[in-house]
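Readers of this paper often ask what the protein records in our data store actually look like. An entry from our holdings is shown next, in its original layout:
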Amino acid sequence: METIEDALPADIAQNIALLKEDLDLKIPPKKLEKNLLIATWNIRGFGDITRKWKSAINDSPKRDFHSLVCIAEIIKRFDVIAIQEVKSNLKGLRDVLKVLGNDWSLILTDVNQGDVGNGERMAYLFDTRRVNLSGLACELVVPDEWTQTIPKGMLNKQFVRSPYAVSFRSQNQTFILVTLHILYGKTSTDRITELKGIAKWLSSWADDINAYHQNLITLGDFNIDERGDLLNNTFISEGMYIPPALQNSKVTRSIFDETKYYDQIAWFQDSNKKNNISLEFITGGNYDFLNTTLINRNLTKQAMSFMMSDHFPLWAEFKL
């Protein structure tokens, strides 16, 4: 029986060598005590796998060991990565951890129950040689009082997938990551309601924690359709800031549509447009894996979305 820890088949080993070369060119290297690499990735339906190096046409799920090794190779380029759409079945995630090795760890939520929660978890994977937990881990919920103080209907229910906040420490810097996956809903109005509520929650929290010189960064799948649209403006109306490097039209999020602006890495600015984080942003981007993963398998984009994802990972580099 094949396992993820078996020696790579020759053609897959060649694929991974190509992938590593491309990642070397496009993702900044980890520099000891110099930088911090944070990423977010919605990995489509990240749950069960077919325990083969190459899944067949009739296999379900389509994701196999080949795709998991490619996913792990991308993840290991970052110090900490927030992952959305982790399912109740953790086989795929556990096998990725085996590939990453003993220096990697994870922290994740339980499954979001209910139909709209889609059986998903929020997770962080992190390189313990560079990043460690620093104490805080919590899901964000709506205070009852807020339902009386903001527009009707804006927060009359909990978030569908509770945003997940975890604090980390790297060298002498402590930072809090808040990952979320906004409900897509039937119309953009459904997303505006939840996104406005989350932005307000984060704004209130940021005003408090920044008194203690913490760094609050929010990242994940915001399901924003386009740059500058109403959803985008709703998000930034509470003071959220997206660095220009991640607003560049070349930094795409969806493998199907370059105009989509789903995934974000952002933080707050004060009234003078000064960043409310002490980390210095250097650069950021996405990683387009379409021409470097699962090569020679003749996959359509639709098939690739189930093997890898329908989202590209989004990343940011900070100076320590």
